[in-house]
């Protein structure tokens, strides 16, 4: 909300609490946009340029492994041995590849930080596809 106020671009929008709109003097376009009363929201800034808001504590990644016994375990072991807590692990089938999956992981670490690069090297050795979705 602060960024939207500072930039003043009328095409920028945000999803936030009423209090945030009041704090920054912005108006509410629509209330009650959730489709599920038990819904919760993660907030993200999507920008053309990298946004630096200081240290990151969490990251979201997606990867695939070979389709063989223990392949997923091998990646999860890397997180465990390095004391990295996973807060979400979700599998999704890969279209056109029966019984093969992409693994979406949220973890409590900044995967772009210098101290994480050893872990990244190990993960890249055990994955067939790897992408950082973002750090926050």
Question: Can you tag this structure with a few keywords?
Answer:
4 strands, elongated, 136 residues, single chain, Alpha-Beta Plaits, 21% strand, 2 domains, four-stranded antiparallel β-sheet
* CA-atom Rg in angstroms: 19 Å
Number of helices: 4
Proportion in β-strands = 15-25%
Query: Would you tell me which CATH topology of the largest domain applies?
Result: Alpha-Beta Plaits
Strand order of the largest sheet: 2-3-1-4
Helix content: 25-40%
Helix-strand category: alpha+beta
Number of strands: 4
Number of domains: 2
Tell me, briefly, the overall form: elongated
Mean pLDDT reading = 89
Extract low-pLDDT stretches.
none
Structure explained in plain terms:
It is a single chain. The two termini are 17 Å apart. The protein folds into 2 domains: 1-43, no CATH class; 59-135, ACT domain (Alpha-Beta Plaits), CATH 3.30.70.260. 25% of the residues lie in helices and 21% in strands. It is built from 4 helices and 4 strands, in the order ααβαββαβ. A 4-stranded antiparallel β-sheet has the order 2-3-1-4, with no helix packed on it. The protein is elongated and about 55 Å long. By secondary structure, it is α+β, with helices and mostly antiparallel strands. The protein has helices spanning 2-7, 18-24, 71-81, 117-126; strands at residues 59-64, 86-93, 101-107, 129-135.
């Amino acid at each position: 909300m602060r960024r939207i106020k500072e930039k003043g671009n009328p095409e920028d929008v945000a999803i936030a609490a009423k209090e945030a709109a009041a704090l920054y003097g912005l108006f509410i376009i629509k209330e009650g946009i959730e489709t599920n009363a038990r819904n919760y929201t993660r907030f993200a800034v999507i920008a053309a340029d990298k946004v630096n808001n200081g240290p990151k504590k969490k990251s979201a990644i997606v990867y695939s492994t070979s389709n063989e016994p223990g392949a997923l375990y091998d990646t999860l072991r890397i997180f465990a041995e390095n004391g990295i807590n996973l807060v979400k692990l979700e599998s999704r089938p890969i279209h056109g590849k029966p019984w093969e999956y992409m693994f979406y992981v949220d973890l409590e670490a900044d995967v772009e930080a210098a101290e994480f690069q050893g872990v990244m090297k190990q993960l890249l050795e055990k994955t067939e596809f790897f992408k950082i979705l973002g750090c926050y």
